Amino acid sequence: MEFETIKWELQENGIGILTLNRPKRLNAVSFQMVEELHELAGHLLINLDCRVLIIKAEGRVFSAGTDLKDGNMLGLRKTYEDYQKYYFLNAPEPIKKRTYYQWRVSNFYIKMRKISQPIICLIQGPAAGAGYSIALASDVRIASPKATFINAVINLGLPGVDVGNSYFLPRLIGLSRATALLYSGKTLEAGKALQYGLISRIVEEEKLFDAGLELAESLLQKSPLGLRMTKEAINFSMDSPSIETIIQLENRSILVCSSSKDINEGSSAFLQKRTPKYSLR
Q1: Least buried of 54, 114, 153, 219, by fewest C-beta within 10 Å?
Q2: Alpha carbons 135 and 28: distance in angstroms, whole number
Q3: For residues 237 and 28, what is the distance between their CA atoms, to the nearest angstrom?
Q4: Which candidate, 227, 199, 258, 208, places its Cα nearest to that of 14?
Q5: In 3D, which of 1, 2, 47, 11 has the Cα closest to residue 209?
């Protein structure tokens, strides 16, 4: 697949690398980027050759958030014949334009959780708004000392909640810390993010990709099915009504994986004290 606002690479070993690629625009999330992210996410929903996904960004900024140039178009009453592929722009009222676009962009974060690949996000610099939520929706976050997490939308007269941040943030760092950030719009520095548990490591920027790659390669040593079902169980556990529900899901996962040939390789490798060699899928 070829894109303009993002880059996509799938290595032979099953590691996929998604790069936000608008450095001159500080990787702001434009209409086009939203559509390209949706296209890639839809592909990953059914792609078994990609086992782990790394998300990173070109330039000094991870993402400045929503592209304001595109966002201003949502406030106008005119329609845009040149933008037929963006259906929301041709709604008759600004409120409808904004509503339909909000639905479209926010559904990408749902897809991030629905794809079965664990997601490792590498944050080299500021991550704001929609870019912040890309980091939040990932499974593991590794950041450079220059990384910052910015949710300043409440300072613009809008709610401090957007594209999933009020869902992810309390679950990652706790309700009290999350509400303080969402109410205040304050920037979270890398050191404090590590203290809160939002990120797992701080790595110098020049070593950031290597750290992500090392983690991704370690996940390739796990059963492909087992890893996918682990992400599924974690997703369900975030909203489970009871421990009984999760125990039953875990039981199913164990029984399904124990019927796969992966269990033979995993057990043999463990007993022989070697790295397991699983098939790509």
Answers
A1: 114
A2: 14
A3: 32
A4: 227
A5: 11
Residue 79: pLDDT band with limits 50, 70, 90:
low
* Residue whose C-alpha is closest to residue 9's, from 46, 45, 56: 56
Residue 130 clears pLDDT 70, i.e. is over it? yes
Q: Distance between CA 183 and CA 204 in Å, rounded?
A: 31
Work out the pLDDT band at 169, boundaries 50, 70, 90.
very high
Number of separate helices (H) and strands (E) present in the chain: 11, 9
Whether 197 has a pLDDT exceeding 70, the answer reads: yes
Two tokens, residue 11: 């290595």
What letter does residue 161 receive in the DSSP assignment? Answer: -
Helix (H) or strand (E) holding 212: helix 208-219
Phi, psi of 20 (to 5 degrees): -70, 125
In this predicted model, what pLDDT tens digit does every residue of 2-59 receive, in sequence order? Answer: 899 999 999 999 999 999 999 999 999 999 999 999 999 999 999 999 999 999 999 9
Confidence of residue 63 (pLDDT cuts 50, 70, 90): very high
| Helix (H/G/I), strand (E/B), else coil: 20 | strand
Cβ atoms 5, 33 nearer than 8 A: yes
Contacts of 206 (CB under 8 A, 6+ apart): none
Q: Which residue has the higher pLDDT, 133 or 279?
A: 133
Sign of CA pseudo-dihedral 143, 145, 149, 150: negative
| Alpha-carbon 100 to chain mean position | 21
Q: How many angstroms separate the CA atoms of 247 and 241, rounded? A: 12
Residue 109 near residue 164, CB atoms below 8 Å: yes
